[in-house]
Design goal:
galactokinase activity; 12 helices; ATP-binding; Ribosomal Protein S5, domain 2; alpha+beta; single chain; magnesium; globular; EC 2.7.1.6; about 400 residues; binds 2-deoxy-2-fluoro-alpha-D-galactopyranose
Length: about 400
């Protein structure tokens, strides 16, 4: 937890509004494996990490909603919760979407003030948007005594993203931000919403993220297209196998049997998802057995599928994964998140981290002329209140 960030957000709130707020921390996430599986009812293996958003929130006794993006020094105001509607201010939409979703859940939203700031890199595939949504949802739920449980908050935050940001995301990011556990990764079954925590041994490996620094503009439109392609695949399979409700239920044999009917693109998208679910299962077994080499192979397999069949990677990410593969002590690497830019996630032996960063940065600089930003992340607990004393 960054004490200076908490202090800055807290002071900003006091200066602007002159009363004591509640403080909330909402982390971004990494995902070890299981990409684009969440909206297909499949499996994911994320963790909340020490890149986070800090919120200062207070009920102002009136009807006004006053939002402040501390890092941008921008404000957004609304006369009353009844006026909530998508705006042209993108960052505000994540918060307004949450207000709208809580109202749909019969939470009586009152006027409030909110200042937020953070160090989750934007557009890096680390779910800065989910952190924004979940932090405010948690704060309002607490302050208004609404009594929604964490899973309901995750759903509300996910829906906020659908309706106010236009991205038809799955549940992974919001779940990870809310349910993260210190030192553990969590496997989520995105259909049943059952989850299991696995200890993550940082003595054996570190999680290092390499931020490509690019975000190709296709990202959100292609994301929704992938989702539609998967749904088309399910519609074809359902005609032959009524039990197939989502790609979670499909097998490679079924896809193969109807390859021509699916068409090449939909076939490859669906095959990727079915294989990725199998990889998550295998990866969890390797994790339990402490076999990081085998775990890493699943990560490389995941990247190859995302690159060749799901087609959500890009040259920058592919170069970073190949550069990582060449460094001794790297167990596995792959692109992370929705794709078309953002970060790669790398599992690296602790004693090799420095060499890894130097080597991959040099390759990236030579190939693209870009300075590579890297983050060594620590796995932390999910969204929670920050004791007021931390702000002092
Ligand atoms: C984005 C989405 F928000 C997630 O729901 C998930 O689908 C991910 O892309 C890809 O695995 O982060």
């Amino acid at each position: 937890m960054s004490a200076s960030l908490i202090h800055a957000v807290h002071s900003d709130f006091i200066q602007r509004f002159g009363y004591e707020p509640m403080l909330v921390r909402a982390p971004g996430r990494v995902n070890l494996i299981g990409e684009h599986t969440d909206y297909n009812d499949g499996f994911v293996l994320p963790a909340a990490v020490d890149k986070e958003m800090i919120f200062a929130v207070g009920l102002n006794g009136g009807t006004e909603i006053r939002l402040v993006a501390h890092d941008l020094n921008e404000t957004f105001e609304l006369g009353s919760p009844a006026e909530v509607t998508p705006s042209d201010t993108q960052w505000a939409n994540y918060l307004l979407g949450v207000v709208a979703q809580l109202q749909l859940r019969e939470v009586d939203i009152q006027g409030f003030d909110c200042v937020f700031g953070g160090n989750v890199p934007l557009g890096a595939g680390m779910s800065s948007s989910a952190a924004l949504e979940c932090g405010l949802a948690f704060a309002l739920n607490h302050m208004l005594g609404a009594g929604l449980d964490k899973m309901e908050l995750a759903h509300a935050a996910q829906k906020a993203e659908h309706t106010y940001a236009g991205v038809m995301c799955g549940i992974m990011d919001q779940f990870a931000s809310l349910f993260g556990r210190d030192g553990h990764v969590v496997r989520l079954d995105c259909r049943s919403l059952e989850y299991e925590y696995f200890p993550f041994d940082t003595k054996a490996t570190r999680i290092v993220l390499c931020n490509s620094g690019v975000k190709h503009s296709l990202a959100s439109s292609e994301y929704n297209t992938r989702r539609e392609e998967c749904e088309r695949g399910v519609a074809v399979l359902q005609q032959h196998y009524p039990a197939v409700q989502s790609l979670r239920d499909a097998t490679l044999e079924q896809l193969e049997a109807h390859r021509a009917e699916l068409g090449d693109v939909v076939f490859r998208r669906c095959s990727y998802v079915v294989k990725e679910n199998l990889r998550v299962e295998a990866a969890c077994q390797h994790l339990e057995a402490g076999d990081l080499t085998a775990f890493g192979q699943e990560m490389y397999g995941s990247h190859a599928g995302l690159r060749d069949d799901y087609e959500v990677s890009c040259e920058e990410l592919d170069v970073l994964v190949e550069a990582a593969r060449a460094v001794p002590g790297v167990f596995g690497a792959r692109m992370m998140g929705g794709g078309f830019g953002g970060c790669t996630i790398n599992l690296v032996a602790p004693e090799r981290v420095e060499e890894f960063i130097a080597s991959v940065s040099a390759v990236y600089k030579e190939k693209f002329g870009l300075e590579l930003e890297t983050y060594q992340t620590t796995i932390v607990s999910g969204v929670g209140a920050v004791p007021a004393t931390t702000a002092a």
